[in-house]
Amino acid sequence: MTLDAAIDVSINVPVGESPPSCPRMAGGSDPKCNGGGVWETFRMISIHIMYPKTDESTFDMDYYCATHMPMFVKALGPACNAWGASEVTDGPWAAVGWCHVENRQALDTALGEHGAAIAADVANYTNVAPEMIIGEIAHQS
After folding, report:
1. Distance separating alpha carbons of residues 47 and 83, to the nearest angstrom
2. Model-level pTM?
3. pLDDT tens per residue, range 63-109
4. Cystine design at 41: which of 29, 34, 118, 138 (Cβ 3.0–4.6 Å)?
5. Between the CA atoms of 67, 84, 25 and 133, what dihedral angle is there, to the nearest 10 degrees?
6. What phi, psi does 36 have (nearest 5°)?
7. Which domains does the chain have, with CATH numbers?
8. Which of these, 72, 93, 90, 91, lies nearest to 82 by C-alpha position?
């Protein structure tokens, strides 16, 4: 679909209604109506949750993959496109979890509704506070 075709579709779509066919955009983007009859494209975001490695830190990867990340993914619902976890062998991190989410709004909604339960579960698999990086995906193949 060319940009002109996308504009033509957006002009002909009444506010509050979906176009008859709204294909997923390349690069993981998804069209959304901005309320004014114009369709905008929001970029997919990536979330990286990093767990520091110290002499005293502990991390239960089995629990993280079997319970914690599925809880997070369930909270995100269909907005979660992929997730994974890595045991880090070098550097300042013990583990890194990651997730690809349709857009920031979906993440914010999930964390608003389920964030307290997700945060409370951290003590079940580690004794360190995670750090999170959230960014828009610029490219993926």
Report:
1. 9
2. 0.70
3. 999 999 999 999 999 999 999 999 999 999 999 999 999 999 999 99
4. 29
5. 100
6. -110, 15
7. 3-42 (no CATH), 45-136 (3.30.70.100)
8. 72
pLDDT single digits (tens) 21-76? 444 434 444 445 445 555 555 689 999 999 999 999 999 999 999 999 999 999 99
Contacts of 120 (CB under 8 A, 6+ apart): none
The answer to whether the beta carbons of residues 101 and 29 sit under 8 Å apart is no
- Give the sign of the dihedral formed by CA 104, CA 99, CA 97, CA 133: negative
**3-state SS of the chain: helix, strand, coil percent to 5?**
40, 30, 35
Rounded Cα distance, 10 and 76, in Å: 28
The tokens for 77 are 């619902």
In what order do the strands lie in the sheet containing 80-87?
80-87, 93-101, 45-52, 131-136
